[in-house]
Design goal:
The N and C termini lie far apart (40 Å). This protein has 118 residues and is mainly β. The relative contact order is 0.33. A hairpin with a 4-residue loop joins β7 and β8. Strands 2, 4, 5, 6, 9, 10 and 11 form a 7-stranded mixed sheet that branches. The model has no long low-confidence stretch (mean pLDDT 96). The chain contains no helices and 11 strands.
Length: 118
């Protein structure tokens, strides 16, 4: 059984920084994608950044140049360094794991609130 535990959310002023971390446990597969999504009130959940087990990354256009995703395969963790935060970054941020092989799986963390004040 896969478990994802997030940490690091909070309240920050615009222009500030926060670091989110997600620790994964269980059968994570030999190939997977770990990443972060966010969902603001009355909006759909959207991709923020993902990183494949090979190290390939993908970012939403809205966070390129400000956010950096990284992972430690030995520790099964994924981090999101968020800089130059804007009020529109305010959301609940969710850690996600997609198992590519063997088999398939799609798992979510419980979410962590990030609030950016203007």
């Amino acid at each position: 059984q896969v478990q994802l535990v997030e940490s690091g959310g909070g309240l920050v002023q615009a222009g500030g920084s926060l670091r989110l971390s997600c620790a994964a446990s269980g059968s994570l597969g030999s190939g997977n994608i770990m990443g972060w999504y966010r969902q603001a009130p009355e909006k759909q959940r959207e991709l923020v950044a993902v990183i494949v087990s090979t190290g390939v990354t993908n970012y939403a256009d809205s966070v390129k140049g400000r956010f950096t995703i990284s992972r430690d395969n030995a520790k099964n963790t994924v981090n999101l360094e968020m800089n130059s935060l804007k009020p529109e970054d305010t959301s609940v941020y969710y850690c996600n794991l997609k198992i590519l092989r063997p088999g398939r799986g799609d798992y979510w963390g419980q979410g962590t609130q990030v609030t950016v004040s203007s």
